[in-house]
Amino acid sequence: MAKIKITQVKSIIDRSERQKRTVQALGLSKMNQSVEVEATPQIIGMIRKVNHLIAIESI
């Protein structure tokens, strides 16, 4: 599978609890933090739910 780099670019303050937990499940805990993950269908679905809070790059 391809790897993707996910960076949190917006704050999760004043977001729904579901969005906060999704960002945390992706491995992000603070602004401008990046993680590299495999592009599985589960991860892609999580990215779609919070795409307005994160930036995605292909590796």
Automatic annotation (TrEMBL):
It comes from the Bacteria. One of its GO terms (biological process) is translation. One of its GO terms (cellular component) is cytosolic large ribosomal subunit. The keyword Ribonucleoprotein applies. It holds the Pfam family Ribosomal_L30. SUPFAM superfamilies: Ribosomal protein L30p/L7e (SSF55129). Keywords: Ribonucleoprotein, Ribosomal protein. GO terms for molecular function: structural constituent of ribosome. The keyword Oxidoreductase does not apply. Part of the 50S ribosomal subunit. PANTHER family: LARGE RIBOSOMAL SUBUNIT PROTEIN UL30M (PTHR15892:SF2), MITOCHONDRIAL RIBOSOMAL PROTEIN L30 (PTHR15892). Belongs to the universal ribosomal protein uL30 family. This is Large ribosomal subunit protein uL30. The lineage of its organism: Bacteria, Pseudomonadati, Bacteroidota, Sphingobacteriia, Sphingobacteriales. The gene is rpmD.
